[in-house]
Structures are given as C-alpha cells and as structure tokens.
Specification:
Chain lengths: ~250, ~250
DNA sequence: ACAAGATGTTTACGCTATATACAGTGGTGG
DNA sequence: CCACCACTGTATATAGCGTAAACATCTTGT
C-alpha cells in the first residue's frame, strides 16, 4: 500500500520490467482506487495455471488457455501479470510455498539436509513441470525460493565450513534433486521400455563400439534396482561433505 | 545402403517416427537412386544450426533461419530432417563428437572420471545451448552420447562397485556437470550483479525472514571465490564414492 | 523416350505472445 | 450531483513459429 502507482515509465520496453515482476513476486502491489473492481488476482491466475500444468503439462499453459479457465480473454490477464515469464515465476512461488522447519524435524546437519532434499524432491514429484519452469532463463527468486535456500544454509551452519563452502554444498544438494527430476522427466516408464528395446538392438549391432555399456546392461545396471536413486546420490554427496568437514 | 526405402508408412503421423530419427542419428540412411542430387545433408544442416546457435543462441535457431543460411526455403529442410526435434538431436550429436580416451589420459578411476567431467564441461562451455537442447523431452541417444557414457562406465569398472552402483555414480558425475552448466546459464555476469543488488535490497527489508541467507551474504558466500565450482562438487562426490568403495 | 521418384517452392493453417485501440464501469473531486 | 478519469476487459492485429499439402522441376533407371 501507500506507494503511488508510477505512470508506467517503460522506456526499455521489456528490459527493465524486472522491478514490476519482483513486486509481484513479493506481493507488494497497491490496489487501485478508481475503476471497476478487479475480477482476478495474480495469485488466482497463477493457481489456475498450476492446476492446469499439473493436469496437462506446462506446454499447455498458454495465456489463452489460462484465460479460458476464467472465461475471460487472453489479454485480460495482462492487467494482472506483465507477461508469461512472470506468470511462470508466480507458479513456481505458488508450488514452493513455505519450506519445512528442519530444526524441528531432525537434528544434525546431515539429517536436516537430507530431509530438506526429500521435501524438495516431493515438490518436484508433485509438480513435474517445475523442473522445466525453473530451467528457463534469468530467474529472479521469490520469497519462497529464498526461504528454501535459507533453510538449507541454516542447516549447514553448525558444520564449521566456510561460507563459500556451505554455499557450494547447498548448490550440490539442490542440484542432486534437480538432476533426479531431470532423469525422471527423460525416462518415464513407457519411454524407458522403448528406449531399452531400440538401444539394445543398436548395441547388438555395435557392441564392439561400446564395450563397457554393453557389459553394464548385461549386468543389469539399467534394470530398476532396490536402491533409491535420490538417497544413493545424496549419501555419496553427504559422505563427501563429511570428509571435508573431518579434514578441517 | 541396402535397405530398401520403405514408402513412408506413417499411420500414427508423428508418433512412430522414432526409427526415422534414430536412423538419422546413426547415419544409416540410404541415398536415393532417381531424382536430382540433394544439395544438402542432415549433417551440413546440423552444422549450420550449431554455428548459428553458438553465435546467437538456440532460440534463434528456427527452420526459417537455418534454411536462409543455405539460401533455400524452410520447407526444403524437411527433405533431410523429419522435424525440428530431430534437428536438435543432430546438433547435440555434432558437438559431442568422440569422447576422449581416458585410459590414455590418466590412470585410476578417480582421475579418469575427473578428466571425463572436465572434458564434458568444456563442451558445455563451448556450446552454452547444449544444456537447453538436452533438457528438452524424450531424448533418444545417438552414438556419440552413448560413447561418452561408455567411457565413463569403463572408467568405473575397476572400482569393484556393482553395475547398478556404477551406473548411479555415472549419473551423479554427469549431473554435476549439467548442474554447473545450469548455474552458469542462470547467473551470467550482468544478471548476477543486478540480482545481487535487487536481492540485497529486499533482504535488507526482510532480513528477519532469511537469517541464514543474510548471514551467508555478509560472510561473502556469493562473492566469486578462488575454489573452482566444478572441482569442488566433483571432489565431494568422488570422495563420497571413495568412501563407498572402501566400505566394501 | 518415358515414367518414376526425389527436390525445392508456394501457400496455408493453427498456434504462440503481446502491442494497440477501444468500450464499459465506478469511485472521487469540483 | 455530475463529470472526469483511472481502471477493467475486449477486439483486432502483428510477427513469428513448426509444418501439412499441393505443385513444378529436375534426374535417372528402364
């Protein structure tokens, strides 16, 4: 509230709309005085887009499609959201919501980071489009995204690592979750079967070119295994971090 | 050669064109008998698309733009490439080329995996669009991609790990390279400065909400540091793998 | 020589995001 | 009270995308 609405000084057209987008993400928007009551809010729009993406995938989330969800024209959305980029940012913020309270859930940096990763993973599983949405370019972070980051960094504080190291470890763990989401997106059930069939046929014809791969497949490296991929990678990473800590 | 050209039995329209795309990737195309000589090849098209993407980014690689590079119409490309998806796959195969000979370059699984990661990282740096290109959906792997995978798996064979574990470790290391590329794509120089400025202003206003993050920034966790991010993550991961090996 | 098959162009369709111009609504200052 | 004007929503238009379909042109096997 309070801040007078600046009369839209977009000299750079779309270059410096960052502040507008940021204000949106942080909910710092002042409602207008005169004129008809808005029938929508950025949050309601984002929520509709989220349920749409959950149901039919991110690629079906177009301005037209989302607007149709409210029975309005596509251009109506631009009264609430500067553009599609910002809409996607709002979607991300919407599904992230508040991070879990790690200090309550578990004790010790390792257990806390581990539950952090599992919670984050749960979000990726619930909203498979999240990976693609955050993989797009030039992200600005909203409060929820920062809160997740804060939670992970807080868990790392008692380790005795330097600030730079803690940051790197955070990136490492966050990356592991993203990677797993990526792998899941690449190989769904059907595709995996098809890929395996075609690739094995090709490998039979070129087995001399890929000896290690051929052997790995023969040894069942690609058949679904009992070890959870998230935990496997996480354990390796955290073991490595533990080594670093012990060394200091 | 040899295989008679099937008269294009696309009943599913675009669902079962996979074999066509695969044949392209593996160079198993038979040249036609009658008709004018083709003025292009899939490889030349892909190469032009690669240099275009290197120079102006993947988003400017459109069928029209690539076709213009040869002075032909956009539709002419469809005589050589089934669609844009397959073109991008060809681009990926083109820039990957043959993996390095790790057994010659270094000895020991750790050194070999490390150089593997560095070589892969070099490719990502030379072609920043590679991340986005491989992040797209439903990839089928070409021979070069499989060759890189084979090289990494070969390096892991002397570790004594199970086939499943070796596969997981491979995914872990490959993921680390991808993650770094992702971070580089997210935060280029200019954007980083701008992000830091805006975020620090927001953090000043909400420092109570993000105590650990605020402290981390104050401690210089985000200022460019001397430790190489690729090596830092890699060292943690490989340390963790070493722990696993020792335990067995 | 002729037919067959391959190449390349033209045209068109449906889709995307969004700029622009306009119509209706309703709170507020004169 | 009423006119103004900020604000909402719509209609229209543009530029671009990938690609389907119809067509003309060229080359080669028969």
């Amino acid at each position: 509230m309070a801040r007078a609405a600046k009369p839209r000084e977009n000299k750079d057209k779309k270059a410096r709309d960052l502040p507008t987008g940021i204000a949106l993400l942080w909910g710092e928007q002042d409602q207008p005085a005169r004129g008809p009551k808005p029938s929508l809010t950025p949050q309601r729009i984002a929520q509709a887009a989220v349920t749409l993406a959950d149901a039919e995938g991110l690629e079906t989330v177009s301005m037209n499609r989302v607007a149709a969800e409210f029975g309005v024209s596509a251009m109506a959305l631009y009264r609430y959201v500067p553009g599609k980029t910002e809409l996607v940012e709002l979607m991300v913020e919407a599904v992230l919501s508040e991070p879990p309270d790690l200090s309550a859930a578990s004790s010790g940096w390792r257990a806390r980071l581990s539950t952090w990763a599992h919670r984050q993973w749960a979000v990726y599983q619930a909203h498979p489009w999240l990976l693609a949405a955050t993989a797009m370019r030039r992200q600005i972070m909203g409060p929820h995204q920062l809160a997740w980051m804060d939670a992970a960094l807080a868990a790392l504080e008692p380790t005795g690592l330097t600030a730079g190291q803690r940051h790197q470890v955070f990136l490492l763990v966050a990356g592991q979750v993203r990677n797993l989401a990526q792998q899941r997106a690449d190989f769904d059930e059907d595709h995996n079967r098809e890929w395996g069939r075609l690739t094995s046929e090709l490998l039979n014809r070129h087995s001399d070119r890929f000896p290690a791969l051929t052997k790995a497949i023969a040894d069942g490296a690609f058949t679904p295994t009992e070890l959870d991929p998230l935990d496997f990678g996480l354990d390796r990473i955290l073991d490595g971090v533990q080594v670093l800590i012990d060394r200091a």
